[in-house]
Design a protein that fits this description.
This protein has 173 residues and is mainly α. It has six helices and three strands. Strand 2 (98-103) and strand 3 form a beta hairpin.
């Protein structure tokens, strides 16, 4: 039996969702996805002037707080794949923000640490994040901001439970 290979006429969808549309099945998920995308774009805009790409600030934040850490630990801490973190570290090292060296306790392992030159960047990242926070929450009053923070923490807890067995989450808290 030959499969039906006829194409739908232009403007005539092949599949037709229910009357409310697919997004109606998950309006909160759609909103979270849209907000996350826009937040990442806004973060990129704020960080561009600092010479950072989105995500690199998380690497730097961890290094500023933790001090020298093994590269493998850093990869787990930021929750990104090893190749992405390696590329980030190459760029950050070229910019003079981090330095990598062999771990004296295990010469096969690599320690990564923020450089002294990155201390000025710390204040700039803090300022950029404070501005991003202000823009992000500008339409909310103090009570709504508290509610949003509380509700997002509950959503994060639910998603952590749902994704606990996912390979992408290995080693994450």
């Amino acid at each position: 039996m030959k499969a039906d290979t006829a194409k739908a006429p232009a403007g005539d969808p092949v599949c037709t969702p229910g009357a409310a549309g697919v997004a109606a099945a998950g309006p909160v998920s759609l909103a979270v996805s849209r907000v996350a995308r826009l937040h990442r774009i806004a973060a990129g805009k704020a960080l561009k002037g600092l010479g950072l790409y989105p995500g690199q600030e998380f690497v730097m934040m961890h290094l500023w707080e933790a001090g020298a850490v093994r590269q493998s630990e850093l990869i787990r801490a930021v929750g990104l794949d090893a190749s992405t973190v390696t590329k980030m570290l190459q760029r950050l090292e070229q910019a003079g923000h981090v330095r990598r060296r062999p771990d004296p306790a295990d010469r096969r392992a690599v320690l990564v640490e923020a450089s002294a030159a990155s201390c000025g960047l710390l204040a700039q990242v803090e300022r950029a994040w404070a501005e991003l926070e202000g823009h992000t929450l500008s339409g909310l009053d103090a009570s709504e901001r508290e509610d949003l923070t509380r509700l997002l923490a509950k959503v994060e807890t639910s998603l952590r439970t749902e994704t606990a067995d996912c390979p992408e989450r290995r080693g994450e808290p």
